[in-house]
């Protein structure tokens, strides 16, 4: 592995809404020498530059791609840009990290795989759900065989998108299924064979067409059949007209232990442990405990460890301290670490374009199924 002093990576962070959260994380990583801001909103870009004491950056991707000193671009622009921008970044000879979903069409996923393969540059889909502390703990329990045989997985992402930018209006919920589905696929090391999905409820004419999608459903639910596994992954995606506080989590059941996501999104998980029936009784006994998942900090670059929880940073060049949030189970520094390790170690990232396609394509197929009254759709292999 290269030493930090060898590399001195220049990372462009493109899109400074959610993207702002990643600026201090990259700045703190010992492999990174510069963070370059890319954002068309001049006022927003200037504010972020002042806050973190970095250069004024660029208004758009074209200028950033012309800058030969930039090694990698992390895309956090609106979803409709993801696939085209990622392909442009790789074609420009730079590494690319991209917020989910990697793409919203089968064709774009195929293009992405072809371009990553041809250019030899690194691509990583920055899927927060498989780096959050809840998933990391579930995965450790599964490896230790503490859960018993896995028998059922449920994922849900419920978020109200009213008032979000126009590109979100009427967005087909299953096109964003990666947060709810990926933990099952990662845990079992598999991909989706087929899906049957349904739309539930209805959107009014104005909402269903506002973003250019013509999606009639506020909620989509799907049953995903997994390759080489008898576990069904059931996923609920609700973006509109569903009175429920934001949640993005999973419920995982084994023959010995079940894990349930907290009601309030962040917080301890419910652990159900099943033992045999009481003497002469009927039905197994199940004990329920509330458990705070551990952080597993030892695998994370030391300088990034503070970002696993909300923290206050004052890095060189910053005039004032800044509070940095740590949403999505403290996953952001782990994602950055993996992306930078893949670059410096000269290997594919853990969520390269092939795995990104395996985690994104099932949702695209699920929306097709919902639009066809639950027809079973075979999800093609991408390997
Ligand atoms: N858990 C997660 O992984 C997670 C959470 C939140 C958002 N996201 C994803 O991150 C991305 C950004 O989310 P957001 O909430 O900040 O979105 P947003 O629409 O609020 O903001 C995106 C930012 O990108 C900028 N932008 C618009 N067009 C651009 C362009 N052509 N080039 C560069 N920048 C451009 C906008 O001005 C804005 O500052 C989205 O794709 C979203 O799906 C992922």
TrEMBL record:
<protein>
    <submittedName>
        <fullName>Oxidoreductase</fullName>
    </submittedName>
</protein>
<dbReference type="InterPro" id="IPR036291">
    <property type="entry name" value="NAD(P)-bd_dom_sf"/>
</dbReference>
<dbReference type="GO" id="GO:0016491">
    <property type="term" value="F:oxidoreductase activity"/>
</dbReference>
<feature type="domain" description="Gfo/Idh/MocA-like oxidoreductase N-terminal">
    <location>
        <begin position="9"/>
        <end position="125"/>
    </location>
</feature>
<dbReference type="GO" id="GO:0000166">
    <property type="term" value="F:nucleotide binding"/>
</dbReference>
<dbReference type="InterPro" id="IPR050463">
    <property type="entry name" value="Gfo/Idh/MocA_oxidrdct_glycsds"/>
</dbReference>
<dbReference type="Pfam" id="PF01408">
    <property type="entry name" value="GFO_IDH_MocA"/>
</dbReference>
<dbReference type="InterPro" id="IPR000683">
    <property type="entry name" value="Gfo/Idh/MocA-like_OxRdtase_N"/>
</dbReference>
<keyword id="KW-0560">Oxidoreductase</keyword>
